[in-house]
Amino acid sequence: MPAQDFSAELARLDAAGLRRVRRTLDGAQAPRASADGRQVLSFCSNDYLGLAAHPRLAAAVAEAAARHGVGAGASHLVSGHHALHGELEAQLSEWMDRPCLLFSGGYMANTGVLPALAGREDAIFADRLVHASLVDGALLSRAALRRFRHNDVAHLRQLLEATLARRRLIVVDGVFSMDGDLAPLPALLRLAEEFDALLYVDDAHGFGVLGGQGRGTLEHFGVASARIVHLCTFGKAAGSAGAAVFAEASVIEWLMNTARTYIYTTALPPLVAAATLAALQVMAEEPWRRDRLVTLAKRLRQGCAGLPWRLMPSDTAIQPLRVGSNEAAMALAARLWEQGIWVPAIRPPTVPEGSARLRISLSAAHAEGDVDRLVAALVRAAEGAA
Ligand SMILES: Cc1ncc(COP(=O)(O)O)c(C=O)c1O
Question: What is the pTM for the complete model shown?
Answer without folding.
Answer: 0.96
